[in-house]
């Protein structure tokens, strides 16, 4: 968590709202993501975290508000256009090419048959020995690692991780924390991460944003968020 961050805003979210029928999934969210930081997004189930990811990556259209990437509007852009701009993500529900090998999954994301580059990414997530195994044959934790590597294969400037530690045991979560920190430093990228494991987020992130009922109720350092009365009431509870 000690790597320096820039004051340059990569992504600016202004008064962002999303309505699904009568459901207000996001309600006037304001958030800026600074270049080089690890920003965590926490909150109860149904708070709007994945919806926010979906809006950022073009899968869901906002009902109101603005998104600016490096000062330019993302309005109307399709997911593949947003990916080419330098935003990549993983999904809460894995979306690997299950019948393809691990290395082929990365080569598709890279748009290249460069086996050496793909192997380097697999080595980063400790899957190099399973390069030619089908993605479907991997254990769940390894499938999460593969999706992480596949997102990196697109060479993003901003990496969005949706519940990257889901289903992992404590040792795997520690390994994930080290991996995210190493990737931030090695690839010089910015990371936005959703995760329900609060102790992990407190250790990993430079800043935390807390959503509750679609609203951003707190934003600050992990220590500031941990002490925020609204956060304690809405989410952390006995984890104080």
Automatic annotation (TrEMBL):
One of its GO terms (molecular function) is ATP binding. Keywords: ATP-binding, Nucleotide-binding, Transport. It comes from the Bacteria. The gene is livG. Residues 11-238 form the ABC transporter domain. It holds the Pfam family BCA_ABC_TP_C. This is High-affinity branched-chain amino acid ABC transporter ATP-binding protein LivG. It comes from Synechococcus lacustris str. Tous. SMART domains: AAA. InterPro entries: AAA+_ATPase (IPR003593), ABC_AA/LPS_Transport (IPR051120), ABC_transporter-like_ATP-bd (IPR003439), ABC_transporter-like_CS (IPR017871), BCA_ABC_TP_C (IPR032823), P-loop_NTPase (IPR027417). The lineage of its organism: Bacteria, Bacillati, Cyanobacteriota, Cyanophyceae, Synechococcales. One of its GO terms (cellular component) is plasma membrane.
